[in-house]
Amino acid sequence: MEPVLGIDLGTTNSVVAAVEGSSPQVIPNRAGYKLTPSVVAIAQNGRQLVGQMARRQAVTNPKNTIHAAKRLIGRKFSSKEVQRVRELVPYDLVAGEHDDVRILLGDQPLSVPEISAMVLGELKRDAEAHFGQAVSKAVITVPAYFNDAQRQATKDAGRIAGLDVLRIINEPTSAALAYLAGRTGETVGKLVVFDLGGGTFDVSILEVSSGVYRVVATGGDTFLGGEDFDQRIVEWLVFGFAKEHQIDLRKDRMAMQRLKDAAEKAKCDLSEGQESQINLPFIFSPPAADGTEASPQKPALHLMRSLSRAKLEDLTRDLVERALMITERTLSEAGLSPTKISDVLLVGGQTRMPKVQDAVRSLFNREPLRGAHPDEVVALGAGIQAQALVAETSQMLLLDVTPLSLGITVAGGYSAILIPKNTTVPTSATHIFTTVRDYQTSVKIMVLQGEGQRAEENELLGEFLLSGLRSAPRGEVDIDVTFSISADGIVSVQAKDRETGTEASITVTASSGLTSEELQRIIDEQRDQLLEQRQAVETRTKADELRSRMSDLEQIFPEVRGLIDGSEFGPDALTKAERTLQRGKAAAEGNDLAGILSATEAVESILSLFRGIVAKLAGSGP
Amino acid sequence: MSDMSGGAPDQPIDPTAVDLSPERQREIEDLLARTRSSDPREVLGVSATATVDEAKAAYFALAQRFHPDQFFRKRLGSFQAKVERIFTQLTRAFQEVLRNPDGPPPVASPAPAAAAPLPAWSPDDLPDLWEEAAPVAAEPQIGGRSRERFAKALQQQRFDLAVEALAALEVEEPHALDLPKMRLELKRRQDEVTAMIEYTKGTVAHQKREWNAAYKHFEKASALDPRNAVFVERAARALVFQGDLKEAKRLAERAVELKPDDPNCRTTLGRVFQLAGMERNAKREYEAALKLDPKQDFARSQMRKLWWKG
């Protein structure tokens, strides 16, 4: 049976796992590493790089190296999150047609799902190399607090990468699954998963009993993670450097990339040690002296600073506090106090920071659990879920919840919630609404996601019009609005006039910024591109074959010329052979596979003819 | 927008082609029928006295067999909607048990699952009065109508409908400032009606001379509507017949306190004093009662008795 993958598509790193035999295993990439950096680049020579290769050349090629695309996925270009990222990243962002984000990669504006698809495609190929067979089915994880648009965009990325996305599941749930797998039958009390990853923070409260994993409540912040901790260090370094030398390093993309790498390394060092040295020689090089500089020539400058653990904790204090606040709020939403929690599981690279562990320990007044590999559990859980879905019968069942409330805009610009957050999915809810104006014959249903009281504070998932209502004074027409979330997490909304039975509905799906036509086009293009690539490879091989045949022919040519030059059919045959060679040379230079093949055929027939002549004449000769 | 969920493989929908054994189909139909019940414990298949833990175990066991994931990418035809409905109903029932662990609330309210617990009120929730009026949207707006439904239901004393309308209003206008007031009003009106029912039952028991039962009904009525002196007075009277003078005195005094100008309350208090041998106090109360209502025959006859005695 074809292996099914579990993929943790992370902000900084991605991991792929699958159930092999009876236990889930992380699948190493072709370089032998378990973690693949979620980095995509176009190298100077035009080659597309993914993973470690892309990451390694980031410093020298910052503009065309895309990292942390997950922070952009499914977001609107005009959102404040995207505008913030835009200031921080060395690559360029432009607005797409539907206020979606496009990333300039090698001057080509690509949608975020396309960038993520490159990472997913790499993981897919790694898995194929590992298993020695094609794999196409996968469960992909997302932060629990991702909204519908972000989930859809992630799904689109999978489709572009040629994956059949079985399910999108939540990262903390997935981690819990992996952590508790194999402990079936055992009733675990309430478990809190505290997941502070590269870009996002999630907290989920689960209740686990005999193979059923029921999420009680979930909360989080899709803009709080390790990258923010790094950024604090970068800012501290930039600020210090500016104070000392009056030079703003932020203008230099390459310097910023080096700072970012150094900050991340220092942060990791400080999880073990108390002090870390940051050493960046030649961080500032004076502009080339071309005489046009008005300012006096500055010498090359180096950055050398030492960062203590205490200072790092000071720089990031509010980030840790924010995570704790969200945790407390989520607990209270679930009607639980920290003492009612039987275990706390730490997930995500950033939970390696001692300060984070201390904070969690003191909130719950217990030692938090940590798996041996906090970076891998999410992918392992996804692998387990993928296997459970395709298995004929499974003892394992995930009951997850909607992280955000769903509702519609009602008169006055308020949001009327039909499905509150933390509702177990699949689910549905119906509510009666009415008209607000006399003789109004249509209503607009605007589907919202979020907790904002005002409609505009929420994500607009989609909108549609229900028309053909009975013309009546306001308040007299009953309109049933039904929301459903399928097991697959797909939101659909239906509105129906009770009296006339007129109805209208939408399935909210294509909200990733890509319309379904665009998505199809990209998928087709990908397929065409693959075909083209395959064809190019074939053409090159065939052209090489042609060249080698021609060189065989050229080698034998003088001998044949000597043998038959005087004979009656000699001149004719020789001219023909020369012409064939010329045609072959032209074909070998071109890209026309058919031309190459026919030229090869012609060369081969002459070659066999000549070989025959040589064998005959040279053998029977003197 | 179109569906590109990729959830189910594309295939012509043939409701007759279903990857389910006939037994499984029957199981699903049976469970679906059961989930139509309005009693959450019945939906979950547990006894009426089942604890939350028992309900949870039943919910988990049923979910494990009937969750849509257990039919992942199977051809279900018409059963697709059925299994989704079953799971939604099971979840709703379980949530209901979690909300009311001790059984159904006093008034059977088919509260929609959408009724979220209301956030605590804070000054931040106050609408900004200086905010410009929302511009009239060009779009045809949709609105709720639960406010009218609530008022009408209250007026007709259809509390089931009022509960429903209020739950709906919480969805439509979660930030309406008068929601707590409306909730209190509903409870008050509900209690009033329940108190009247108890009062009637008490009166019936009293006529049958079942003093203890009568006392209990009046006591309940009084607990639901503590400002009503009549209930307290009747409870006191039932106690007098039962012979519990100490408690009767406390209640009768309370009744008088609540409604000093009610002759019945005065008479009852007078009777308590009289039986307790506090004749001077008894006379005073009877006099007060007669002053308020000269037709208080019992007070008059007892006054006469006391007078003769004295």
Describe the structure in your own words:
The complex is a heterodimer of chains A (622) and B (310). Chain A has 622 residues and is an alpha+beta fold. Chain A has 14 helices and 28 strands. In chain A, a hairpin with a 5-residue loop joins strand 27 (491-497) and strand 28. The longest helix of chain A has 49 residues, at 516-564. Chain A starts with a strand and ends with a helix. Chain B has helices spanning 22-34, 40-44, 52-66, 79-99, 146-155, 159-172, 179-207, 211-224, 229-242, 245-258, 263-275, 279-292, 297-309, and one strand at residues 142-143. In chain B, helix 3 packs antiparallel against helix 4 and helix 11 packs antiparallel against helix 12. The longest helix of chain B is centred in the middle third of the chain and has 29 residues, at 179-207. Chain B starts with 21 loop residues before the first helix and ends with a helix. Mean pLDDT of chain B is 79; it is low at 1-11 and 105-138. Chain B is built from 13 helices and one strand, in the order H-H-H-H-E-H-H-H-H-H-H-H-H-H.
